[in-house]
Write a structure and sequence with these properties.
The chain is an alpha+beta fold. Helices cover about 30% and strands about 30% of the residues.
Length: about 210
């Protein structure tokens, strides 16, 4: 992706934390029919260092897993918090009027070779881990083992696992770092007032400003 230096994030621990917080990936691959994209939850493993491995699954009926161009990387896109930024929040608007709207966002692109797998044991481990990630914080978490075993085995036959060993990881935190400090301060206040405290907090952190009150 287009990545100006002031928006770039390359620290593995920060990128990994953002991937885990997002969870849902847009998986893009190239096949004989052209580009194909699926939207699937993916699990991040830290190994191999430094970038790790992504694991997910698609329906067996989804042709994407069969149609993978040899030697071509797949791309998994994760998005973090985002929000529209109005020029009305910029003090420089009142000084020169030379301002335009923009959009602040967090985006992570993970590249690597994609390998399908069909082993029932690995699939069960994967769907259990994906489920536990979402269910564990709940007061009464649902477990894969709560369903009948024969039902789960039938469900596993209907999916195919995907493993992407990350060879390149790019992060973009576009959070008003290209604006004067007074404009970034205005963005923090504006976002917080309009119900985007998560984006406001990131703008503050990335620009060395005081975090807005929650």
């Amino acid at each position: 992706m287009y990545l100006p230096r002031h928006f770039e994030e390359s620290r593995p621990e920060v990128l990994h934390a953002a991937i885990r917080q997002s969870g849902l990936a847009t998986l893009v691959t190239l096949g004989v029919e052209g580009l194909v994209a699926s939207h699937i939850p993916m699990l991040l493993r830290a190994e191999p260092a430094p970038w790790g491995t992504l694991l997910g699954h698609v329906s067996r009926a989804n042709p994407q897993w069969r149609d993978l161009a040899s030697g071509v990387e797949a791309l998994a896109i994760f998005l973090g918090p985002d929000a529209y930024v109005t020029p009305s929040w910029y003090p420089t608007k009142r000084k020169s009027g030379k301002v335009v709207p923009t959009w602040n966002y967090v985006a992570i692109h993970a590249y690597g070779q994609l390998r399908p797998f069909e082993d029932p044991g690995r699939l069960l481990e994967l769907v259990t881990a994906l489920t536990d990630r979402q269910e564990t914080p709940r007061a009464e978490p649902w477990r894969v083992a709560d369903a009948p075993d024969d039902f789960i085995q039938t469900q596993l036959k209907a999916i195919v696992g995907l493993e992407l060993t990350i060879t390149r990881l790019e992060g973009k935190w576009k959070m008003s770092q290209n604006r004067p400090t007074e404009d970034a301060t205005g963005v923090v206040s504006g976002l917080a007032a309009e119900g985007h405290p998560d984006v406001a907090a990131i703008v503050a952190e990335r620009n060395g400003l005081e975090r807005p009150p929650e």
